[in-house]
Amino acid sequence: MGCGLLRIFVAFTLMSVGGCKRSIDESCHPDDLIGLTSFKAGIRIDNSGRLGKWVGRSCCKWEGISCDNTTGRVTQLLLPGFISTDVSILQSQMKGSLSPEITLVTFLEVIDLSELSFIAGNIPSSIGFRLPNLRRLYLLRNKLTGPIPESIGKLSKLEEIILSENSFSGSLPWSLGNLKNLNRLVLDSNRFSGPVPDFLVNLTSLVVLDLHHNYLNGHIPAKIGELQVLEQLDLSENLLGGKIPVSLTNITTVQDIDLSVNSLEGEIPFPSGSGQMPFLRFLALHDNHLTGRIPPALGSLVSLQRLYIENNKLSGTIPSSLGNLSDLKELFLGGNRFLGLIPKAFSELSQLINLNLSNNLIQGLPRQMSSLQNLQILTLSFNPLNFSSIPNWIAELPSISKIYMAGCGLRGEIPEFLQRKAIQELDLSSNHLTGSIPSWLGDLSQLYLLNLSKNALVSKIPGSFTGLNELGVLDLHSNRLTGSIIQVFKMGSMLPGGLLRYIDLSGNSFSSGIEQIGLGEQYGIEFLNLSHNFLKGRLPTSIGRLERMRSLDLSHNELGFNLPESLGKVRSLERLKLQKNRFTGKIPDGYLMLGKLKVLDLSDNLLVGQIPNGKPLGDFPKKSYSGNRALCGRPLAPCKP
After folding, report:
1. What count of Cα atoms within 13 Å lies in the side-chain half-sphere of residue 619?
2. DSSP labels, 319-332
3. C-alpha separations of 21 from 15, 32, 70, 565 in Å
4. What pLDDT was estimated at residue 19?
5. Distance between CA atoms of residues 317 and 203, nearest Å
6. Residue 530 · residue 505 · CB < 8 Å
7. What is the signed CA dihedral for 408, 414, 419, 420, rounded to 10 degrees?
8. Cα(291)–Cα(285) distance, integer angstroms
9. Separation of CA 497 from chain center
10. N- to C-terminal Cα distance for the chain?
């Protein structure tokens, strides 16, 4: 009797275990199967091939699906766009619509359809009624639209919502305030509108709140400081107004605050004293309408590494207390109304890498700043510094690589001490520099940007410029330069097409070298302005190699002969200005292929014949063709038979 009962018990146990295993390994719950196959049916393209393996009824074996070991129900749908392998990370994409039937998979705890690029549709309105166990919802970087359903507030277990970079719209539903377990709410880069709801302060578990790059308006909730465990707050790039809430100082855990690119007003209200916000590393308040002075207590934010308050209406002197920010790496104060001298205490910012003081009323900098051993980028442009020359102490900065000193009242010649530095970008434009362009500039092998425009330089372009293989931007306009431009187009390159993208030599007295355009290794040029010179000769057919060019201005020169047919191959051209030259012959029919052209001026040349009939040439105003010898056809008068 006892043995018989034991056999029955063991058999029952095996049946129970076997039955459980079959429910996981062999078959899928009918609701889960319908929900997942409906999701698959909504996806037209899956270049990862994962959905193609979803065959049969054993959905727990399907790639991207996880199930509960006890119930056999699907708990996780994991199909992110980035797939990690042993050797690399692959980007995959899916194109189609998010099926509302996905909510039939009622035991789901995690949905990750992030970064698949092309999934459209809406979040199902029934999500809050059907998925009570959902903890994480990741739908970022797709093409989803519509509002966040009101029912989402019923998902009491929800911990993370990440919907970034879609096209969601509407106001934020009030029911979000019910999600007491929510620790990450990331809704950036969508089209949400309306105010930042006051109920968000009820989400006392929030660690990350990111609503940037939307259309939110109104004020920042006054009680936002009640989010006592918040570490990251990003409300930037919205339409927010009013004052910055003082309550922010109450968040002792906060590390990053970004309120930039809004219309915030008033003074910077924090910190009100030392010891507040002890972990704050990143503070961005730039591009608002803030007024008043920098609060001296800002220097007590001992963990601060990056401070951006540029482009406001701040005024007064810069407090020396900022010199206490020993961890500061980036300091942007440009575009305000600061005046006076930079404090000597700035020399204590030993970790500083990037300093921007541009567009203020600053009158001087202390020599002690030469002790900034890590400073790589120094931006002083458009301040009334009126240096007699570039200060020698800049030569003592061992790490300096980018110098911006446009509009600083610099005089004299370009100093030789700069040739000892590994300069990558040098902007000395809008000053009173005289003399010649030094040939040693051509030896700066890492130089990417050189802007010497709007000075009084008198020389030729040095032959050494042909060695500037890394140059991407060259601006020498509005000087008194003469001779040939040939050196610019003979620059070498380590990459096909070269790095040179922007060239402006206008407003000088160059007379030759036009024949070199497009012949050398630099044929990736996008912006080329040679206007207001004395260039002569024929525009070469090699200009057709500049297929990336978007803007070409050769106006106000002495160029002649026929317009080159090859220019019609530059399909990316948006702006073409050839007026005030001596071009002859007909306008080539191939120019009808310039479909992106928005600005055209061929006036005051010697062109003849019918303007090629069609877009875009026929859509420009008459003034684009006026002052030629004998042009006719739309938009001018019809040609005579």
Report:
1. 11
2. PGGGGG-TT--EEE
3. 10, 17, 9, 74
4. 38
5. 40
6. yes
7. -60
8. 12
9. 24
10. 120
Are 239 and 263 in contact by the 8 Å Cβ rule? The answer is: yes
- Residue pair 286/292 in contact by the 8 Å Cβ criterion: no
- Are the beta carbons of 180 and 153 closer than 8 angstroms? no
- Unique residue bearing structure tokens 């199902």: 124
Q: For 489-532, what is the HEC assignment?
A: HHCCCCCCCCCCCEEECCCCEEEECHHHCCCCCCCCCCEEECCC
CB-based burial label for 164 (10 Å; 0-12, 13-18, 19+) = buried
* Whether the Cβ atoms of residue 104 and residue 130 lie closer than 8 Å to each other: yes
pLDDT tens sequence across 151-201: 999 999 999 999 999 999 999 999 999 999 999 999 999 999 999 999 999
The upper half-sphere exposure of residue 175, i.e. CA atoms within 13 Å in the direction of its Cβ, equals 13
Beta strands (DSSP E) in 98-240 are 110-112, 117-121, 136-138, 143-146, 160-162, 167-170, 184-186, 191-195, 208-210, 215-218, 232-234, 239-240
Helix, strand, or coil (residue 484) = strand
User: What is the phi-psi region of residue 207: left when phi exceeds 0, alpha when psi lies from -120 to 50, beta otherwise?
Assistant: alpha
Residue with tokens 């089209």: 191
Cβ neighbours, 10 Å, residue 69: 11
Task: Please give the Cα distance from 425 to 414 (Å, whole number).
Answer: 15
User: What's this model's pTM, rounded to 2 decimal places?
Assistant: 0.91
Identify the burial level of 428 via C-beta atoms within 10 angstroms of its C-beta, where 0-12 means exposed, 13-18 middle and 19 or more buried: buried
Alpha carbon separation from 395 to 70, 213, 241, 409 (Å, rounded)? 70, 41, 44, 19
How many degrees, rounded to 5, is the angle at CA 65 between CA 28 and CA 15? Answer: 40
Render pLDDT for 113-147 as a digit per residue (tens, 0 to 9): 999 999 999 999 999 999 999 999 999 999 999 99
Cα distances (angstroms) measured from residue 544 to each of 193, 524, 566, 605: 47, 11, 5, 21
**Whole-angstrom distance, CA of residue 374 vs CA of residue 351:** 6
* Distance, CA of 152 to CA of 175 (rounded, Å): 7
Residues 258/287, Cβ–Cβ less than 8 Å? no
Report the SS3 class of residue 573: coil
Q: Let me know: does 132 contact 105? Beta carbons within 8 Å.
A: no
